[in-house]
Amino acid sequence: MATYHDYDAVIVGAGGAGLRAALEAGQRVKTAVITKLYPTRSHTGAAQGGMCAALANVEDDSWEWHAFDTVKGSDFLADQDAVDIMCKEAVDAVIDLERMGLPFNRTDEGRIDQRRFGGHTRNHGEAPVRRACYAADRTGHMILQTLYQQCNKAGVEFFSEFFILDLVLSDDGACSGVICYEISTGQIHVFRAKSVLFATGGYGKMFKITSNAHTLTGDGPGILYRKGLPLEDMEFFQFHPTGLYRLGILLSEAARGEGGILRNADGERFMERYAPTIKDLAPRDMVSRAEFFEIREGRGAGPNKDYILLDLTHLDPEVIEKKLPDITEFARTYLDVEPLTEGVPIVPTAHYAMGGIPTNVEAAVLRNERGDVVPGLYAAGECACVSVHGANRLGTNSLLDIVVFGRRGGLAMAEYASTAPKPDVPEDVHEETEKWLAGLFEGGGPENPANIRARLQETLMANASVVRTDESLGEALDDVTALRKEYAQARVRDRSKVFNTDLTEYLELGFLLDMAEALVVSARARTESRGGHYREDHQLREDEHWLKHTFITRDNDGQTKLAYKDVVMGRYVPVERKY
Amino acid sequence: MADTAARDDSDTQVESHEIDVELKIMRFNPETDEKPHFESYTVRADPTERLLDCLHKVKWYRDSSLALRRSCAHGICGSDAMLINGENALACKVLVKDLDQPITIEPIRGLPVIRDLVVDMEPFFAGYLAVKPWLITDDKERMPDRERIQSPDDRERFDDTTKCILCAACTTSCPIFWADEGYVGPAAIVNAHRFIFDSRDRGARERLEILSMKSGAYKCRTVFNCTTACPRGIKVTRAIQEVKQAALFRSL
């Protein structure tokens, strides 16, 4: 039994990208938003520091400087046409959000205030620039709230706590809907739709130490990967340099934007050695690597010499309380540390997936490295790869990405849906899914999915995180392959139809295992170091061979295959990346 | 194998001081239970762990049928509000060391229980939507090429109530809300406050009319449970008082 629904546009995920898309699509065609959480629970709400746009409210700036920083930050892997679009549209995107009511912090003149952020510079790297628009250290929270408010005002239809199980493709390869599971009742729903946009967020939960929510498990990209569609640049995963020790909870880069300093056990400001010009405000990949080496070379702080200290003690207490209240509270609540008087223990934490579902600049999903699209299928936000972040995303550019490409995706899917024919979806399309779902409860072995997940997180953290080698990645791949076999034997133990989170966690683990496979296989093949992908056995960037995007697919027999797509170049020619 | 900077507790476990933590959890599955009942579990945990970590240990290693909501695990998403030792809090924001044992965990009150610690949030969101929680503007003011001007003081005026994460800890700690289905509850009034005191908003009159009705702010008897319960430290009772006064004088 399944319930069938008909919509023009269906958006999966209700974080910033999904809600921004819904605002556009909802005004134009019949639109539904499907989300496994209530929209305000989405992880956009955890973003802290800001959203960059060259408003030039407090000092000279231009979108071209922003574009340069983004391309350089990406280690020249970003597609420069997409970067131009994002940085140009950033200014309107911020103004749009303000017009919707977002409570940005203000300058004395009443304009949107701006502050410094890692990797954002004046005039092509001269010095840090104040470009990040912010609302205290809860900018993402305010973006999520504001977009949710506007969606409610516009009457967008939400299906909250609906979990996506599958994508429906018609015989000609066009997208024609999605199949979902209603968590509170166990009921299956089929949403027939002319266009579908995935905005399911990241998949950092494959790592042991992560800033990501428990629910960030790659459901959207996982479903496409199982359909034989490609994922792009999966080897590029960003580790944020300031995760709370042991927990991974994020302390925003804004802490360093406001003047915070990283110190090793000797109290040394070690970033002066790694990035002499912008020091602690170097891009995240470089700072995380610097921390990694400081710790490995015995200069880590603490009894086990295994963390770095984020020092805010020299800052004006009022600045800390006013501009960084949340992260200060995290340190107090979770580590019992008082940032006003002592250093906060931090480590690199798995933070952001640069890779994901390949799309063009209209957010249309690509079905191959030649750029052909899947008609009617779109993706935006962290689950997508446009690619504006290349091998390493600059801080604040994720909030920008979700609103710019969420908007473009919403417009494109509505336009497509307004002329596309009603999808021809047979009334029994859910049966195969239903059978598969029923099988997850039957038979199987004693394997506990929680153990499988813990071992996945251990091996990815140890073997495929900040620093990688062929050997470590080989070990990770062996582990992931073995864990996938165990997973196939494991079963859902709770048989209830009502709010069965044993089932949803089981499904999420399956997606995580797929994401991990795609990451490790892509990373092992790339025998160079670039951005967030650092190979200790291939320490240099090699533009001759590797200035290209990875496309990974898996066929019906479970064999992975790699293909490559040229980077879209533009004004900026690759040079050595120094800060 | 590459070494890793974030090796974390493989070493620290040596010096961790795990203790037995006893949890008494209210359980209810509508498919099998006539009424809710408590079940006890003992797990090993470091005193600095979050209560949510203990609930995960129960769910992952003891009884996979335990139903709860959670997502971010650091007090931002608002999924895991629960009644913990008689007070509303987020399970991810309270640490074991700060709780008396056995730790009693029940669903938040005043909303129908779906299963175990999961309640039906729809009535809560209906109350929220009733106050028109979005910026209401006068179209004539539009100048879409630039931001509106707002002074830092005007911005500061409603800062406190922008922090709300809609976790429902305040609303479901309110005895008036438990007793009176019609009351929109503290969280809805907090969200009305966020707009009523925003210098850019023009919807104060509409909202105050809604909140002057019998479902509105006058129901509040300043019990202060809401302020205690708020995991974001919002001065909820004060916000409600400010809304009441604004409704009384209609002078903003």
Shape of chain B: elongated
Unreliable segments of chain B (pLDDT under 50, ≥5 consecutive)? 1-14
Distance between the termini of chain B: 65 Å
The whole-number mean of residue pLDDT values of chain A reads 96
- The helix/strand order of chain B is HEEHEEEEEHHHHHHH
Please, how many helices of chain A?
16
Oligomer: heterodimer
**Averaging pLDDT over every residue of chain B, what do you get?**
91
Question: Helical percent range of chain A?
Answer: 25-40%
Overall shape of chain A: it is globular
What can be said about the biggest beta sheet of chain B? 5 strands, mixed
**Amount of beta strand of chain B:** 5-15%
Number of strands of chain B: 7
Q: Given the helix and strand composition of chain A, which structural class is it? A: alpha/beta
| Major beta sheet, strand line-up of chain B | 2-1-5-3-4
Given as residue ranges, the uncertain stretches of chain A (5+ residues, pLDDT < 50) are none
Topology:
The complex is a heterodimer of chains A (579) and B (252).
Chain A (H helix, E strand, L loop, with lengths): L1 E11 L3 H13 L2 E5 L15 E2 L10 H11 L6 H21 L13 E9 L4 E7 L5 H16 L2 E4 L1 E8 L5 E8 L5 E11 L20 H8 L4 E2 L4 E8 L9 H4 L3 E3 L7 H4 L9 H13 L11 E4 L5 H7 L1 H11 L8 E10 L3 E2 L5 E3 L6 E7 L4 E2 L11 H23 L11 H9 L9 H15 L6 H20 L11 H25 L17 H4 L1 E7 L5 E7 L13
Chain B lengths: L8 H4 L6 E9 L9 E9 L5 H11 L19 E4 L2 E4 L12 E4 L6 E3 L2 E2 L2 H9 L21 H6 L17 H5 L6 H11 L7 H9 L12 H5 L6 H14 L3
Parallel strand pairs in B: 1-5
Antiparallel strand pairs in B: 1-2, 3-4, 3-5, 6-7
Helix pairs in contact in B: 3-6, 6-7, 6-9, 7-9
